[in-house]
UniProtKB/TrEMBL annotation:
<keyword id="KW-0677">Repeat</keyword>
<dbReference type="Pfam" id="PF13181">
    <property type="entry name" value="TPR_8"/>
</dbReference>
<dbReference type="InterPro" id="IPR050498">
    <property type="entry name" value="Ycf3"/>
</dbReference>
<dbReference type="Pfam" id="PF13431">
    <property type="entry name" value="TPR_17"/>
</dbReference>
<keyword id="KW-0802">TPR repeat</keyword>
<dbReference type="Pfam" id="PF13414">
    <property type="entry name" value="TPR_11"/>
</dbReference>
<protein>
    <submittedName>
        <fullName>Uncharacterized protein</fullName>
    </submittedName>
</protein>
<dbReference type="InterPro" id="IPR011990">
    <property type="entry name" value="TPR-like_helical_dom_sf"/>
</dbReference>
<dbReference type="Pfam" id="PF00515">
    <property type="entry name" value="TPR_1"/>
</dbReference>
<dbReference type="InterPro" id="IPR019734">
    <property type="entry name" value="TPR_rpt"/>
</dbReference>
């Protein structure tokens, strides 16, 4: 909510006047600017936090996130490395470093960082998910399936992981497993549009059963009859 963010900025600005030497205040202000998409302002406040307290880890991670969102992946990588010099066991810094490497298509380095994040925090669901994506890009399909399954096991409501796992099974022509995955996703959430799209895709493309596919696409339109959804359903036939 932009109104709430604006209020948070006003409060943080007031706090910087009250406590001008407090690095945490500048970090908080940087984080709020980041949430508003005002990355240059976020960066300047993160940098001020680091000036005041060079051993404060959070602003380095904040800088990395801001740079990454701006497409400045090398700058992001440098900041995450600085964070990890301060604390080599920060799972989030390893995870974000993995994301930055992934944005540069440096999948081997990304894999290494995701594994470190998982080693530190085995419940790090997004690390499992993104590790699966890296394995998929490298055509290491069994490893990808394993990591998607771990993401789902640790968070059974993680809809995107079900969808990506189902699509991978489709691509490998393991259609029954693809269908089972979509059905499991729908047990969690009956309104998960991508699961119906996946079922429609399986029926239409892989099994040449247009009638069954149309039933699934109609369910999508019942949930969300907006133009974007109609386009998504139409594209599934193309």
């Amino acid at each position: 909510n932009m109104g709430e963010l604006d209020l948070a900025i006003q409060q943080d600005l007031y706090a910087t006047r009250l406590r001008p030497q407090d690095a945490t205040v500048y970090y908080s202000l940087g984080s709020t600017y980041d949430d508003k998409g005002m990355y240059e302002k976020a960066i300047s406040h993160y940098e001020r936090a680091i000036e005041l307290d060079p051993d404060y880890l959070s602003p380095y991670v904040g800088l990395g996130l801001a740079y990454d969102k701006m497409g400045r992946h090398d700058a992001a990588i440098a900041q995450y490395r600085k964070a990890l010099q301060l604390d080599p066991n920060d799972a989030m810094a390893h995870y974000n470093l993995g994301l930055a490497y992934g944005h540069k298509k440096m999948d081997d380095l990304a894999i290494s960082e995701y594994k470190k994040a998982i080693e530190i925090d085995p419940q790090y669901v997004k690390a499992h998910y993104n590790l699966a994506e890296c394995y998929k890009r490298k055509k290491m399909y069994d490893a990808a399936i394993c990591e998607f399954e771990k993401a789902i096991e640790k968070d059974p409501t993680y809809q995107k992981a079900y969808y990506k796992l189902g699509r991978l099974y489709c691509d490998l022509d393991r259609l029954q497993e693809a269908e089972d995955t979509a059905r499991k996703a729908l047990e969690i959430n009956r309104e998960f549009i991508n699961a119906y799209l996946l079922l429609g895709y399986i029926y239409y493309y892989k099994q040449d059963e247009a009638g069954k596919a149309i039933v699934e696409y109609e369910k999508v339109l019942e949930i969300d009859p907006t133009i974007q959804t109609i386009i998504a359903a139409a594209n599934a036939f193309n």
